[in-house]
Amino acid sequence: MLDGKWTLGRRCFLGLAAMPLVGVLAGCGGTADERERDAAAAVQRFETALNSKDARALCEELAPGTRSELVDAQQRPCVEAITDQDLPPAGETRAIDVYGRQARVVAEGDTLFLSQFGAGWKVVAAGCRPEPGRPYQCAVKGG
Question: How many structural domains compose the chain?
Answer without folding.
Answer: 1
